[in-house]
Amino acid sequence: MKVSDVISGALFLALAAFVFVYAQTLPPMPGQRYGAGAFPTLIALGLGGFSLLMIAQAWRRRAGTRWVALADWARDGKTLGNFLLALALILVYVFFSERIGFIPLSIAILLILFWRQGIRLGTGAAVAVVATLAIQFAFSDMLRVPLPRGLLAGYLW
Amino acid sequence: MESILKALALIADPYVLAVIAFSAAFGLFVGAMPGLTATMATALLVPITFFMPPVPALAAIVTASAMAIFAGDIPGALLRIPGTPASAAYTDEAYAMTRKGKAELALGAGVVFSAIGGIFGTIVLVAAAPLLAEVAIRFSSFEYFWLVCLGLTCAVFIAQSAPVKGMIALFLGLFVATIGLENPAGLPRFTFGTTDLMGGIEMIPAMVGMFAIAEVLRAMARTQAHLPPPQPVTGSIFKGQWALIRKYPKQTLRGSAIGTAIGALPGAGADIASWITYATSKRFSKEPEKFGTGHVEGIVESGAANNAAVSGAWIPALVFGIPGDSITAIVIGVLYLKNVIPGPLVFEKSPDIVTALFVIFFLANLIMLPFGWAAIKTFKHILRIPREMLMPIVLMFCIVGAFAITNSPFAVGVMLVFGLLGFLMEENGFPVAPVILGIVLGPMLEQSFVTSMIKSDGSFLAFFARPIAGALVAATILVWVAMAWRGFRRFRMGGAPAVSG
């Protein structure tokens, strides 16, 4: 997805304005003139300045460019679907990994992605299980990372 | 001498040697796989090194990055697809050699001159870093402020076709660095009352997001093209290499020297080193007309240069804590996590680790010869691994790697946000490396800025008063003016898009 530099510049400018206003609310350090707000203020000025510059540059050559142009992948249902699916699956992991647990969730995520990539179910299932167990072994057993057990709590070694 | 023995003892540990062997294989695999970059190899390793002591952690990163940069040559020569961007400059040349039946010579030159360049860069690193540190030790917060400014600006200036977008990316990274409690005043900033944001945005999940998840998303958004079968490699790759060394000593030296220098410049890494040296090689060649037709000379020079750049990038990283490229930006984050604070004092505070690091560099470039040979011989089998399967597994690995840093799903969320951000930025022509540089260097820049302001009682003039600071100011401002001039000219010319390179 390509958006015009005018739009992305405006977004960055808005972020800069927000950082600037927020920085002014931070109190100075006792006895000093410069506190927690000084550095963010500088950043806001820099970010805002360069955003304005970019908007100005893009405005001059706006003729013939579109505000938002969808890339090929975003028009094709299959690639767009794959892209959104990957994002959605990470989100599912963020919110449900504690409850479901790493092993079942990882196998499910891999299986779904393999299926979308056109890999045969049998092969996909085998690789999903092996890859999940390998990651579980490497991180949980060797590096002692407490990967969420979720549904399998009580059954795992 | 004593510290060399100590360093050798640190490395001779079977655990460290196993880490080196594993990272070498991993780096070769990632580098040889079209679509996976050396930066991604480093990004994927970092969550694992998080759990290691400093020496094996550094060994893993050094070995994997050196191997990945070399391994990018393999698919370049055999498929005409560069494995990493650092091999792109001479991919056509190497493939032309393969078409002429000289694949062995092209690949052999890739390995041998990569190793030579890497060792050259290491020698410069060993010699120059401690000397520079003696100068740097006299630096005060004023000098550091300008040094970081200079480093960050160079990062944007050298590599970028669109400096304005680079600067925006940089300020975005600096902003991200201000989130949380970690600031001179110890006040929560931009946390909006959430405890998750109090600790700030962790560098590792952000980096895994920008360098690996963005890559995964790009692969998802593209229909995988099936790779053609690679050209077979049957003969000995080392045959004729000695003759090449004797025939092209000047090219080898020039490539290594320019590569090291470009690597040491903040912000420019192996990719740019190989483009520039391929051009110098052609420019000074006695037979420039042969370039592009399968002539090995350019591969000798730029093959040496891209690996020399990997070593060279560590000079500013170790001495000043300023990254030479995106890999060392990651490294600096790792060093901080290991409590090895990069800077001039690192040579006094952690001499064993620094010496061990130097030894690892030599070792990594030496084992490149046997490991590289093995990778070339097995490349056909490496390619059999279906790439459609690789990306989902990489995705799962990233999720677990990000989670492992803080043991919280919040880090996975951070990774997702930065992955999406990195993807959208690249689609719109924003470079992502400056964001990571900003996140890594932001705290140091703020610390030196606030300390300086307090010391000078709020006078901006003090930033220009000291002699070394003055020189750094001059250099920084020069780069700024050059950048503004370039931007201004482009603006006058009706905003013609910049030529990349």
Shape label of chain A: flat
The share of residues in helices of chain A is 55-70%
- Average pLDDT confidence of chain A is 87
What class do helices, strands and sheet pairing of chain B give? mainly alpha
| Total number of beta strands of chain A | 2
Largest sheet composition of chain A:
2 strands, antiparallel
Q: Catalogue the unreliable spans of chain B.
A: 495-501
SSE sequence of chain A, one letter per element: EHHEHHHH
Oligomer: heterodimer
Count of discrete alpha- or pi-helical segments spanning 4 or more residues of chain A:
6
Low-confidence stretches of chain A: none
Which two chains form the greatest contact, residue counts included?
Answer: A-B, 76 and 63 residues
Cα shape of chain B: globular
Secondary-structure map:
The complex is a heterodimer of chains A (157) and B (501).
Chain A: E1 2-3, H1 5-24, H2 38-60, E2 68-69, H3 72-75, H4 77-100, H5 102-116, H6 121-142
Antiparallel strand pairs in A: 1-2
Chain B: H1 2-11, H2 14-32, H3 38-49, H4 54-71, H5 73-79, H6 91-99, H7 103-136, H8 141-159, H9 163-178, H10 203-220, H11 241-247, H12 249-264, H13 270-284, H14 297-312, H15 314-320, H16 326-337, H17 346-349, H18 351-382, H19 387-406, H20 409-427, H21 433-455, H22 462-465, H23 467-492
